[in-house]
Amino acid sequence: MRDDDERETSWQSIYLLTAIGMFCGIQFSIFFPTLWPFLNTVDPTASASFFGFITAAFSVGQGLASPGFPEKQRRWVMMVARFFIGVGAGTIGVMRAYAATASSLKDRARAITFIQASYVIGMTFGPDSYTAMPTFDTISVAVCVLTQFTLMFIITNLETIGSLYAKMMWGWTNAQAVEYTGILQAVNGLVGVLVYALFAVKLGDYISQARERIFTIFGLALGVLYHVVTFPYPWGKDLHFELRNVTVHGKNETEELGCNPDKYRWCHYTKDVNFWIYASMYGVVLAACFPIVNISMNTLFSKILGARRQGTMQGIMLMAGSFARTVGPILVSWIFQEWGPEPIWGIEIFTLSVTAIFWIIFYRRMTPLNSNPKLNPYEYFHYAKGVLYRI
């Protein structure tokens, strides 16, 4: 039998034990920092002193056993489980002994170092509270949800009163209202498709380079511009009203053209808006507003949430839009009936402005979720559960 100086070290087995030791270290580094929060979750009545017993007994695995035990008994299950894990932890001593016998004298220090270092390396992994997906910023998410509500609120309002507004503002017949508003919608849709095409070709990549916030604010500003320019200011002309005989399906009928002051008292004081100004703002400015905000905001929203399952939050986003589409028509039709388009335009200007202001106030927070920041020496990064330093 060769002595220790003559035989060669079994490095394959040493490397295997090194890997096992590292995983043992990972296990312990994960268990210890998370034991108390976990215990406090499954059994809020457990005291800190009892937690000391659990730690001493090397108890873990309670997460698997707890569903089968009453809450009052979970602490004991956790302690027993920790005891068996403690028995398993005896492998560290066995691995050190094996390293001593499997290595030559000249390699003994190196072999023992591998085993010792493997455990320490495993401990450095720890519970992944740093590189694990951190909590997203709730304020940023709330601003995006508010933006979705605002968009759907504006769209629904314009859809609700569109034809009625056109008839009263410019004295169109029912047939003219259908035809001309259809043309306006077609132009609006074509411009919208063009904007979406630009996003699909080049603009999308340009915005994705941390420019979502700027484009969202710009899009909201376009919405404000549309409402400011098309607002029925006092210096406009009085709204026209007349009764005209028209032929509908071969029958002569009397149709109201314009704004009837007997039905709507606001017809007495509300002024008109130039059609060509309105058409250009609706067909171009407002048409560009919605796709710009929609794409920019939703792109950033997905980045704020991070690389996690987003079904719930996307559902909340859609729910905000659905709520706007539910409340908007009821509110707007009532306001239009009682007070006309002026307060509606005012509400929409206010809503768009407040939304844009929130984007400006929280501009620095409206950023993608950073789960793995690049740090220079002596810099640090705050996570929800700790601070990451670079020495």
Automatic annotation (TrEMBL):
The subcellular location is:
Membrane
Q: Which UniProt keywords apply?
A: Membrane, Transmembrane, Transmembrane helix
Q: What highest taxon heads this organism's lineage?
A: Eukaryota
Primary residence: membrane
Record field: transmembrane: 12-36, 48-65, 77-99, 111-127, 139-158, 178-201, 213-235, 275-295, 316-337, 343-363
Name the InterPro entries on file: MFS (IPR011701), MFS_Domain-Containing_Protein (IPR051068), MFS_trans_sf (IPR036259)
Pfam families per UniProt: MFS_1
Task: Tell me yes or no: is Metal-binding among this UniProt entry's keywords.
Answer: no
Please report the record's description of how this protein sits within the membrane: Multi-pass membrane protein
Q: What is this protein called?
A: Major facilitator superfamily (MFS) profile domain-containing protein
The organism named in the record is Caenorhabditis remanei
